[in-house]
Each structure stands twice: as structure tokens, then as C-alpha cells.
Design goal:
The chain has about 350 residues and is α/β, with parallel strands linked by helices. It has one domain (about 45-170, about 185-340): TIM Barrel, CATH 3.20.20. It has helices spanning about 10-35, 60-70, 85-90, 90-105, 115-120, 125-145, 195-215, 230-240, 255-260, 265-270, 300-310, 325-340, and strands spanning about 45-50, 75-80, 110-115, 150-155, 220, 245-250, 275-280, 315. Helix 2 runs parallel beside helix 4 (about 90-105).
């Protein structure tokens, strides 16, 4: 027999072992490779806490957190509703309690929000008032850091010279039942100087951003009617003036459509600055925010636009407390997003 074809017991076992390893590797390599590859970034689905509580200062969001967690959302937005709440409610004990709550549901805080009354003086031309509001904003940044929220958010304030004694000005956009001769009117102070207010707002935006970045956070601004940022165009003008990648746009698709701007187009316009998105629905007259799935807002087209621009942030339901079952609306929203984002 030719010695070149003769196998000893030791060489046979060695060859068999090598073959076994090769076969095992053929099956194990993909699994190992898969486990070593980080998951691909994707759009995430969240809910605002105030879908289940009021906007009254002093409101306790903890029951809302339980509801949202039980519904199965990935993330939640928390909000400070009044300036006094910064000390009266958002204590270390409250923070620790809420963090344990969030951990139970494996929910993250996608962004931490300061409601308009907390920082309304940011547009004041009075230096003292503006600085006090900047301090309130910075307290919000510190809270965001405690919750590991990557973003601090505010609705853009409006000029202090507009809408005195007219309540929450962004909600003043229609006269549903006007009296004879009644005109749509917004009070404007005689000394209103838009150019001066805009220059001040650019500087205060820079100051907010500096404070957010000092605490490792990004800063988003949400657009509302009659504010300093009513739409995507104005935000882009502001961003060009500030020009910082840590300043982002929080788009609310309902308020976008209310301004007669088509949300999917707006998504494409702010694609580089879009950091967060609020989802809601709207009736055919584009005046009321009805429950998601009951209106005319094309959320499927919004989702498609988000995928086209490579967006990987949160799309969170921010539904007004229109009469109806909010939990059922959230369940419907989750099912819609599962289909639209697939």
C-alpha cells in the first residue's frame, strides 16, 4: 500500500476533528457574525405623557406612565408644566421613583419637555426676565440628564408684545361661531419691533443651546401658530442663523397641516435637522385634532417620508384629549406604526 495514502489513528482523529470544526464553523459563523453586528438604527414609537394627563401645573404624570408602559410603547416624553413644579414636584425623590417606574416597563425618555409657561420669557427684551427663563431652561436640562433623555424640548415662545390677555396664543387661530361684525384680531403692542425681537430670539436660542450642550443634551424647538417658529421655513431660517447640529426640529404633523403645510414635504425640507416627531390626526377642515385613525392626516405618507430621509428618531403620539378612549387610540396607533414602519 502506498504510504502517502496511509492514515495513522492519530492523523485520522486530527483530520476528523478539523472537519468537525469546519462543519461547526459553517453553521456558527453567521450566528456569531450576527451577534457581533449592532442592530440597524430604526424609527422608534413613543407616547407623550400628557396624552393621559392635563396641562395643569402640579399634575402628577406617574399614573400616565403606568398606562403608557402597559400599552407597550418604547419611549415616553415627560413634561414640566409650571415653573414652580421645578422645585415643588421634580425633586430627587420623584426622579428616583419615576426612573424605577420606567425601568419596570423598559421605557426610555425620548425627550424632556418644558411647557411654554416655564420658559415664556425667553422672548422678553428685558435682560433680567430673559436670564430667569434661561435658568429655568437649564434646570430642565439637568432633569433631562437625570432621566438620560438625549433631548430637551420647548415649544417656540411668542413675542411678549403679541396677544396680551388672549390666553394661549397658538390656540387662537379660528372663530368657530363669530358674532355679527366680529373680526379675528390679535392684540399687538404699539412698541412691537419684529426685527429686534427676532435678533433677541436668535441670541437666546444660542444661549439655550449652550446650556443644553453643557449638560450633554441636544435642543429641539417645536413650531406652533403665532410663535417665533410657526413652520418649517422659519425654523430653517433660525437654524441658518445659529448653525449648530445640536439644534433640532421637533415636528408636529398636526400643527404642520393646520398651517396648510403638507407634512411629508416638510419632513423632506428639514431632514438634516429633524430630531423628533409628534403624530396626531386632524379633521377634514383642518381645525380639530381628532383621534388618530379618524381624520384625514396621512400618517402612512409621513412614515414613508421618514424612511426615505433615513430618520431613526422617535415618532410619538401627541393626541389632544378629544372625547373618546385614548387607550384605544394608542393601541390603534401602535398597530398603524407597526404596519407603516415595517
Amino acid at each position: 500500500m502506498n504510504r502517502s495514502h496511509t492514515l495513522t489513528r492519530r492523523s485520522f482523529l486530527s483530520a476528523a476533528g478539523t472537519a468537525s470544526l469546519a462543519v461547526a464553523s459553517a453553521f456558527e459563523t453567521p450566528a456569531l457574525a450576527q451577534s457581533a453586528t449592532p442592530p440597524k438604527p430604526r424609527i422608534k414609537v413613543g407616547c407623550t405623557s400628557w396624552a393621559f394627563h392635563s396641562f395643569q401645573a402640579g399634575e402628577n404624570p406617574e399614573p400616565a406612565i403606568d398606562i403608557i408602559g402597559q400599552l407597550g410603547f418604547e419611549g415616553i416624553e415627560l413634561i414640566v408644566l409650571g415653573r414652580d413644579d421645578l422645585k415643588a414636584y421634580w425633586t430627587q425623590a420623584t426622579i428616583d421613583r419615576i426612573r424605577k417606574q420606567l425601568d419596570r416597563y423598559k421605557m426610555v425618555v425620548s425627550q424632556f419637555v418644558l411647557f411654554q409657561p416655564v420658559v415664556e420669557g425667553l422672548t422678553s427684551l428685558d435682560t433680567g426676565e430673559r436670564n430667569r427663563n434661561l435658568d429655568s431652561f437649564e434646570t430642565g436640562c439637568k432633569l433631562a440628564r437625570q432621566f438620560a433623555a438625549p433631548i430637551v424640548n420647548i415649544v417656540a415662545p411668542w413675542a411678549r408684545q403679541l396677544g396680551r390677555n388672549q390666553g394661549y396664543l397658538p390656540r387662537f387661530y379660528e372663530l368657530p361661531d363669530p358674532a355679527p361684525g366680529q373680526k379675528f384680531h390679535i392684540n399687538i403692542d404699539p412698541d412691537f419691533d419684529y426685527d429686534a425681537v427676532w435678533r433677541n430670539y436668535v441670541e437666546v436660542t444660542r444661549a439655550c443651546l449652550q446650556r443644553a450642550k453643557a449638560h450633554g443634551r441636544k435642543f429641539t424647538i417645536e413650531h406652533h401658530t403665532h410663535t417665533m417658529v410657526p413652520d418649517a421655513s422659519t425654523f430653517l431660517r433660525l437654524w441658518d442663523a445659529v448653525s449648530d447640529p445640536d439644534l433640532g426640529y421637533n415636528m408636529d404633523v398636526g400643527w404642520t397641516l393646520l398651517q396648510r403645510e403638507y407634512p411629508p414635504v416638510a419632513v423632506h425640507r428639514v431632514k438634516r435637522q429633524l430630531m423628533n416627531l409628534h403624530a396626531r390626526d386632524m379633521d377634514g377642515l383642518m381645525r380639530q385634532f381628532v383621534h388618530i385613525g379618524e381624520g384625514v392626516l396621512d400618517l402612512q405618507a409621513v412614515a414613508q417620508a421618514l424612511k426615505q430621509i433615513g430618520y431613526t428618531g422617535f415618532i410619538s403620539i401627541e393626541q389632544d384629549k378629544f372625547p373618546g378612549d385614548m387607550a384605544a387610540t394608542c393601541r390603534r396607533y401602535l398597530a398603524m406604526m407597526k404596519e407603516y414602519l415595517a
